[in-house]
Amino acid sequence: MSTTILVEHPWLTTVALAALVVLGPVVGHLLVARPRLSGWLGVAALLPIAVLTLAPTSRSLAVGCAIEWSLPTLGAVELMANVVLFVPAVLLLAVATGRPVLVLLAASLASGLVELVQALVPALGRSCSTNDWLSNTLGAALGAALATLALAVARRSARDPLGGRR
């Protein structure tokens, strides 16, 4: 169902990505002082990842994984959706922990494990693809970069509460 919506409205992934890039650092900065809230929101952002990648479908697939390496583009709905899917969770969890690189690595590993499960459990009806892992990892990298920006702004604000004005 979500794929159908995205195919009918391919601009949604681009708008979502732009909104995350613009609003992500602002939200991250606001949540730096509230790591517990950021952590809970980050865990909540994992739920759509689990549902969209591991919920069974009615399709029947053979065991295996498509080995392909395509970078997502604004017109590639499925690949862009895979990018967008990981940005919020990584952004929020990286702000909560203060460790964007560690959260990025964990997210990339988690994406790889999802693809492995999809490859080894054909009853899920999910397609394993290296493109999905790559797109998820790129989304995680963007989330980590946005969190790094939010954390840097928060550190700078803490050092200079007047914003350089005296």
TrEMBL record:
- Sorted UniProt keywords: Membrane, Transmembrane, Transmembrane helix
Report whether Ligase shows up as a keyword of the record. no
Instruction: Give coiled-coil spans as residue ranges.
Output: none
Q: Record's Pfam families?
A: VanZ
Transmembrane spans:
12-32, 39-57, 69-94, 101-121, 133-154
Residue ranges constituting the VanZ-like domain according to the UniProt record = 77-149
Concerning InterPro entries, the annotation shows: VanZ-like
Supply the name of the protein.
Answer: VanZ family protein
The uppermost taxa in this organism's lineage are:
Bacteria, Bacillati, Actinomycetota, Actinomycetes, Propionibacteriales
